[in-house]
Design goal:
Residues 16-26 have a biased composition (Polar residues). GO terms for molecular function: blue light photoreceptor activity; deoxyribodipyrimidine photo-lyase activity; DNA binding; FAD binding. Keywords: Chromophore, FAD, Flavoprotein. With 727 residues, the chain is mainly α. It is built from 28 helices and seven strands. The protein has helices spanning 3-17, 21-28, 49-55, 79-98, 112-122, 136-151, 181-190, 233-242, 247-259, 265-268, 281-285, 291-308, 311-336, 358-365, 372-384, 389-402, 407-417, 423-433, 449-456, 461-466, 486-491, 507-533, 553-557, 587-592, 599-603, 652-660, 666-671, 706-710; strands at 34-39, 60-67, 105-108, 127-131, 155-159, 628-631, 635-638. The strands form two sheets. It has a five-stranded parallel beta sheet with strand order 3-2-1-4-5, sandwiched between helices. A two-stranded antiparallel ribbon has the order 6-7. Strand 1 (34-39), helix 3 and strand 2 (60-67) form a beta-alpha-beta unit. Helix 7 packs across helix 13. The longest helix has 27 residues, at 507-533. The radius of gyration is 26 Å and the shape is globular.
Length: 727
């Protein structure tokens, strides 16, 4: 059975098995026996439909969690994400024990379905309840579980615990899924409010009975899950000072947000130098906090402030609910277009000539680009696993538009390092930034990091916190130190190119390069379309089999060194792993290693660990006007000079071969880099710059349509069920 068929069948099965609370109560209570509740990204007791249905059964309840990260392939959870998961499971286990459970049954396996079936058989369970997930891998896995256990006579039911509305419930007037966020969210707001959140099973009301937890027989052992090794414990200890995982702590965080930050959210949410956001995303990702509870409580605050005439508070609630809607839309998009995790939704963007270069990627992730706001954001991400949402937009836009690196690289790095790493939300964000969505940001728009700096960090406090080498620089120059007079730099102890790098690329050069890349993309797309229309060949169309660009070696090194999973004796089971890239640096050690040589970067030594401070960066290369070099043996590196010759006529076979060809190897991409230039940009006011219309500093608006209005052919969405799936 093909992957696409499996996903489609799993969708149909979810539609058929969707049950109301009343029907689930009667179905679950028909007979006794044992019910296994399969916890995943729903690590809470409150408003947990699967647990609530199990509590209504006449039999015993066995809570279980299966840890099978190998199934995620390249998206093995990062260090900080695994730390949060471990703490959340401990909190959940303690909560279940207070209800009378002996323990949360945990299993370590390379195959979650096999482990779950083995558990069901070993305790002679009669029911399996779990809550929905909507990514392609989970859809296929859930279908497999239902198919196998139903064949054995086990009652299997799944519920909605992650969304306000199921994806199949939100459709347009023609019964089709929405392809843009604004009409999707408008439709959601017009629908009846989602059901009120369920209370935890406490036995304190007539609705809830005390949950019956069976005394597990000895034949049902529990694996000890190990989420960190000795190299990660020191870094993880720092996380506990800032975060408190667990569903009860999530309630406290929500209450603190509602009673504090929410009032001024519309005004302060753009400030990167303060705690101006909700900080709820990790709790929402791991299911410690019910999205329905958040929605209803924010709605209540909005109604109260509206009655009081508090327009600022009312606006803040509307903006925050919109962020909840974006989270909702990310799962909606993934459910209806599973390919969105790997491929652009707009078909023409598969022709975009991304720059495959590991040196650029390493400089970006280490915070050594020479643009203070970008570097500060990447240092914070590396050290804490957290990033303000405005800064996420800045660093991802710089990654895609200025460096023109493949957006999947950035998404993968976010997955490896973010505390709230969420594939669906991250894919939506990166596709939006790269212009891959019908309502995404214009592809030809570059955000000026300098202007963004004075917008989101007007006093430079955020930059000074994470770039101590710039701490003594006056606010006037903090976001563009290359323009500061030499006397100011000397007084601040800054030597550009030594203790702080020069900008990796000039914005004007990046804009020219981007315009050329767009021109090349449209010519490649036109060549493919002409080939199909002329019948010369099948063309690429919606069934393009262009393989995704491989992740760089440094990202692959951050993945697990997979050893055989221990399945005997049920002892600690964790594949050996060591991620030096994610160790939290100390300021002392950082300053002591300022002399790191860039030559090591270009060498890409496989044993190289991440330097902890910016090293001396020299990207100056003499450039010949109109010169075109080849990066990595296939990706054209576009120079600063004017018109490029030799591109007015295309050899169709060579053109399509380049599109179908496999991305150049990472070693070639690193070693053959030439002429990317490190010219220091001279800042001028927007009105004085000829390209100022491209360097916009306006807030990201997902409803922007200017680019698509100019290129109507880019409305074409790729048909996911005709694409090869990589799960």
């Amino acid at each position: 059975m093909s992957t696409a068929m499996e996903i489609e069948k799993s969708k149909e099965q979810q539609l058929r098995t969707k049950v109301s609370p009343s029907s689930s109560m009667s179905c679950a209570g028909e007979a006794g026996g044992r019910t296994v509740v399969w916890f995943r990204r729903d690590l809470r007791l409150e408003d947990n439909p699967a647990l609530a249905a199990a509590a209504r059964t006449a039999g015993e309840v066995v809570p279980a969690y299966v840890w099978a990260p190998e199934e995620d392939g390249a998206y093995y959870p990062g260090r900080v994400s695994r730390w949060w998961l471990s703490q959340s499971l401990r909190h959940l286990d303690a909560s279940l024990r207070r209800l009378g459970a002996s323990r949360l049954v945990t299993r370590r396996s390379a195959d979650a379905v096999a482990a779950l079936i083995e558990l069901v058989r070993s305790i002679s369970a009669t029911h399996l309840f779990f809550n929905h997930l909507y990514d392609p891998l989970s859809l296929v896995r859930d279908h497999r579980v239902k198919e196998l256990l139903t064949a054995e006579g086990i009652i299997v039911q799944s519920f909605n615990a992650d969304l306000l509305y199921e994806p199949w419930e939100v459709v347009d007037d023609d019964g089709c899924p929405f392809t843009m966020f604004a009409p999707f969210w408008d439709r959601c707001l017009c629908m009846p409010d989602p059901a009120a959140p369920l209370l935890p099973p406490r036995g304190s009301t007539q609705v809830w009975k005390t949950i019956h937890i069976c005394e597990l027989p000895r034949r049902c052992p529990t694996d000890e899950l190990v989420f960190e090794d000795e190299f990660e414990r020191g870094s993880n200890a720092l996380l506990a000072r800032a975060w408190s995982p667990g569903w009860q702590n999530a309630d406290k965080a929500l209450a603190a947000f509602l009673n504090g930050t929410l009032m001024d959210y519309s005004v302060n949410r753009k400030k990167a130098d303060s705690a101006s956001t909700s900080l709820l995303s990790p709790y929402l990702h791991f299911g410690e906090l019910s999205v329905r509870k958040v929605f209803h409580q924010v709605r209540m605050m909005q109604l109260m402030w509206s009655n009081e005439g508090n327009h600022a508070g009312e606006e803040s609630c509307g903006l925050f609910l919109r962020s909840i809607g974006l989270r909702e839309y990310s799962r909606y998009l993934t459910f209806n277009h599973p390919c969105s995790l790997e491929k652009p939704l707009l078909s023409h963007l598969r022709f975009f000539p991304w720059v495959v270069n590991e040196v650029y990627f390493k400089v970006w992730r280490q915070g050594r680009t020479g643009y203070p706001l970008v570097d500060a954001g990447m240092r914070e991400l590396w050290a804490t696993g957290w990033l303000h949402d405005r800064i996420r937009v800045v660093v991802s836009s710089f990654f895609v538009k200025v460096l023109q690196l493949p957006w999947r690289w950035g998404m993968k790095y976010f997955w490896d390092t973010l505390l709230d790493a969420d594939l669906e939300s991250d894919a939506l964000g990166w596709q939006y930034i790269s212009g891959s969505l019908p309502d995404g940001r214009e592809l030809d728009r570059i955000d000026n990091p300098q202007l963004e700096g004075y917008k989101f960090d007007p006093h430079g406090e955020y930059v000074r916190r994470w770039l101590p080498e710039l701490a003594r620089l006056p606010t006037e120059w903090i976001h563009h130190p290359w323009d500061a007079p030499e006397s100011v730099l000397q007084a601040a102890g800054i030597e550009l190119g030594s203790n702080y790098p020069l900008p990796i690329v000039e914005l004007d050069a990046a804009m020219s390069r981007l315009q050329y890349a767009l021109s090349e993309m449209w010519e490649l797309e036109a060549a493919s379309r002409a080939a199909m229309e002329n019948g010369m060949e099948e063309g690429l169309g919606d069934s393009s089999d262009v393989p995704p660009i491989a992740f760089p070696r440094e990202l692959q090194q951050m993945e697990v060194d997979r050893e055989p999973v221990q399945t005997t004796d049920h002892g600690p089971a964790m594949a050996g792993r060591r991620r030096q890239d994610q160790m939290v640096p100390s300021m002392t050690s950082s300053l002591a290693r300022a002399e790191t040589e860039l030559s090591a970067d270009f060498g890409n030594n496989s044993m190289d660990s991440r330097p902890e401070v910016p090293s001396q960066v020299h990207f100056h290369q003499p450039r010949v006007e109109g010169e075109e070099t080849v990066d990595g043996g296939g990706v054209a590196a576009r120079s600063n000079g004017g018109e490029h010759q030799g591109h007015q006529q295309y050899n169709l076979q060579n053109t399509l071969h380049r599109v179908r060809g496999i991305a150049p190897s990472t070693s070639e991409a690193s070693s053959s880099w030439t002429g990317r230039g490190g010219v220091v940009p001279v800042w001028s006011s927007p009105s004085a710059s000829s390209n100022s219309d491209h360097y916009t500093a306006d807030e990201a608006d997902i409803t922007s349509r200017n680019y698509l209005d100019r290129h109507p052919q880019s409305h074409t969405l790729m048909n996911w069920n005709q694409l090869p799936q990589s799960l």
